[in-house]
Amino acid sequence: MFAQERPFSFMATAIYGGSNPVYEWRRNGIIVPVNNDTYTSISFSNNDTITVQLRSSLNCVYSPTASDTAVAIIRPKSTPTSFSVTACGSYTLPWGDVVTNSNTYIHGYQNVYGCDSVVTVYVTIKHPSTPTSFSATACSNYELPWGQVVTASGAYTHTYSNVYGCDSAVTAHVTINYPGEPTSFNATACGSYTLPWEQVVTASGNYVHTYTNYKGCDSVVTAHITINHASEPTSFSATACGSYTLPWGQVVTQSGDYTNTYTNVNGCDSVVTAHIVINHASGLTVLDATGCSSYALPWGQVVTQSGLYVNYSYQNVNGCDSFVLIFVTINYPSEPTSFSATACGSYTLPWGGVATSSNAYTHTYQNVKGCDSVVTAHITINYPGEPTSFNATACGSYTLPWGDVATSSNAYTHTYQNVNGCDSVVTAHITINYPSEPTSFNATACGSYALPWGTTVTASGDYTHTYSNISGCDSVGNSAYHY
Question: N or C: which end of the chain has fewer CB within 10 A?
């Protein structure tokens, strides 16, 4: 045992690989208890010299002997680990910290060997949707969006999962209203009754209508209706001269329909209609009348002369006295007239008709006195000749029958008048051919020369001959000779 500390050096052997060694002091192969020895001032690298100061619990420094061995037990760190996690709102890390933001969180532990062990956590924090609410009002009950049916007013909350899988709270503020108590009434009417809800009913019965009360809920009203009926309407007809007293005491002096309403045993209307014809005595009636050839007087007499005709006393058509004085003027038709006319194809008659065949056509006018005036038209309808045509061929030009000269092939039309004075159309289909261009040649002979067209010449000169070409037109050939 020494009274002071002193360092010593020796070769250490690594038991485990790593960077954080833990040292044991062995003496003669036996581990010295650590509660008696403290290791300080340690520096070390694998398979290298380790310097250790050893101090006992009595603050004495040990001097190693040959059998003392310093053994470096290299105890490794754990391999770093990591994991990812997603949470809603917050996440409690394995080491107890609570985080509320997405981030990368690192923590170092000591493993079973007392060495560092690093854990990395990749945290993604999702957030719940902002709580939402809505209000709804219903009658008697309300079905909430999540299927629950409620029958009382209140705030109802439901938690959904949003797209991130986090809570999304919806609160429904529901007001439940209730229908009014059913009501009813009785009514009696004749023929029909207009219900308070504007429906018109014509038969007795119970009629139900549903209103919406001030809270928007159904309110049922039942009407017990009794419909009585009026008697079937009745009517009668009457004719009188001057005036008529109706059954209900009214005196009428004009023709018309007069109606009176009684009340039948059911208290309903019973309608009677009187169809009244009031005829009147004519008194003295003065009339002017005009007729053509004759006139039938109101009392049946037919007159054929102008004059004053009187009937002093008779019953008119209405059964009442009538006195009539009639000044009659008798006019006469004009004498019938006629005319003749001739036309080609058709003729427009003076009164607007069109005649297309020969005939006598009659029309009745009114003359200045309003009597018939008969006109007869004796119409003769002539017709154009059938169109004709011919073909012609010429050389250079062609003189058409009507004097025109055609110089090119074409169809030429001309209109004549036939013996009836109507159009007669002739079409000439003309073909114009043309002469060939003049040709010439030279020839020399001794004594004489036989021309191609058979003539023999004995003197030099120009000789001409005219052929017909394939179109039948002149084709001139010239020949000059010298000998």
Answer: N
Q: Which long-range contacts (CB under 8 A, 24 or more apart) does 10-13 make?
A: 10/49, 10/50, 10/52, 10/64, 10/68, 10/69, 10/70, 11/47, 11/49, 11/50, 12/44, 12/47, 12/48, 12/49, 12/50, 12/70, 12/71, 12/72, 13/47, 13/71, 13/72
Pairing of the two strands 321-331 and 283-292: parallel
Residue type, 109: Y
* CB of 113 closer than 8 Å to CB of 75: yes
Residues whose CB falls within 8 Å of the CB of residue 112, separated by 6 or more in sequence, listed in order: none
**Category of 59 on φ-ψ map: left (φ > 0), alpha (ψ -120 to 50) or beta:** left
The 3-state DSSP class for residue 55 equals strand
Supply the DSSP symbol for 403.
S
Q: Yes or no: say if 214 and 177 are a contact pair by the CB < 8 Å rule.
A: no
3-state SS assignment for residue 7: coil
Q: Residue 326: pLDDT band by 50, 70, 90 thresholds?
A: confident
> What are 210-264's pLDDT values in tens digits?
887 777 787 889 999 998 887 788 889 998 888 899 999 999 989 899 999 888 7
Supply 99's token pair.
Answer: 């985080």
Phi, psi at 215, each rounded to 5°: -95, 5
> What is the per-residue pLDDT for 473?
83
Q: Mind giving me the DSSP string for 125-142?
A: EE-PPPPEEEEEEEES-E
Question: Is a pLDDT exceeding 90 seen at residue 411?
Answer: yes
Can you give the pTM of this predicted structure?
Answer: 0.29
- Burial level of 12, CB count in 10 A (0-12/13-18/19+)? buried
**Cα–Cα distance list, 289 to 235, 317, 408 (Å):** 40, 19, 80
Q: Would you tell me how many other CB atoms lie within 10 Å of the CB of residue 327? A: 13
Whether 47 shows a pLDDT value over 60: the answer reads no
